[in-house]
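Give me structure tokens for this 458-residue protein.
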Amino acid sequence: MKRTPVSNQITEGVIWKQLLQFFFPILLGAFFQQLYNTVDTIIVGRYVGTPALAAVGSTAALINLITGFFVGLSSGATVLLSQFYGANDRAGVRSTVHTGMGLALVLGVLATVLGVWAGPKVLLLTRTPENCLADATRYTQIYFAGSAASMIYNMGAGILRAMGDSRRPTVFLIATCFANIVLDLLLVVGLKMGVAGAALATIASQAVSAGLVIYALCRLDGDIALRFRDLRLEKSLMRRILYVGVPAGLQFVTFDLSNLLVQSGVNSFGDITVAAWTAYTKTDAITWMISGAFGVSITTFVGQNFGAQRYDRIRKSVWVCMGMSVGLVGTLTVLVLTFRNVILGIYTTDAQVIATGASIMGLIMPYAFVFMPVEVFAGAMRGTGYSLMPTVITCTSVCLFRVVWIFTLVRRFHTIPMLAACYPISWALAAVTFFITYLRGNWLKKRIAYCGMEPEKR
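Here you go.
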């Protein structure tokens, strides 16, 4: 197969500089993505009321569950594309771009059908407070009606990042964020449409991001540019995509199922606690934006270097990324905890909600840095296409553990501190398991042998 060199590779140069150059645009994009979600929460909390704020918050775990599975499934395409890109395989890049976008369309339709049909049933099962149920149902069904745009954007942005372009997806999210703010003010504050207006603003802004990413893909260099007539689900590529994507999608499902179960536990404490938990999770989202940005960065970095057979850079990058992520999250945690009452006051003026939210933050956030090894190790393994083991570790150490915790200790000791404790303990358990697996599992050698690539030179 003829291989024509492609540009923007990250297989040369100083590792920490390249990771940060890739990381900051992703983090900035994640910030604006979270900002336009947070704007919904702030405007609903301040202009509609506490029950409406609780309604929007009670849908978060369900939305993450369904969209997370499909986004995880599509991640197989971006991992495969980064390897083709690192190997200078232009034909492989072109085929993966068109198969990936074809898959995004299919996943968008499936997410819409599943979310609109199952959403109300899941909200009932998770004991959503009665005074929030109608608004929560309305928000969920409108949100999932726009799932196709979300899938197209996430796949398209992943494709661009896999080729080393983390700047344009960030620019698109900034534009989307401003569109969402304007629409929120118009529909919720101006037209008094309540949570329905917030949901409509979200899906309309997602359509903007989808349109922008499609435009960027259509203007890629030469024969790798997106052409709608070439969209297809190429069988040989789909097998490789699903090999990576199915475990990643299942990890999202089990992770979010455990969070859905936690949300059910939170719901049992009433709408004040639900609103406080919503404000806390929106605040704490910056931590997970950082960890997620490092995870995407290391996955793309490892993927390209794996394709280029630069195994030395893979090993070094893991520890560089680990140090940066732990240091940054630790520093941020100190700042947020210091000003938590002020931050929570952005979301609501209800003093009881602020006090409860501050207490929850103090129970969980000091331990957030413990989760960073999980994100880095899992991202590195997935970059080589080794997706099953990270899924098994995360599902057992985090998800299964939380399920057991909720059904045993939380039922026996029905307190918020007991509920919150499942987070830091599960993070620590997963981090230790990943350390042992990474240091003693010879995972990289196994991937090299499996892919029939040139072995490491020692």
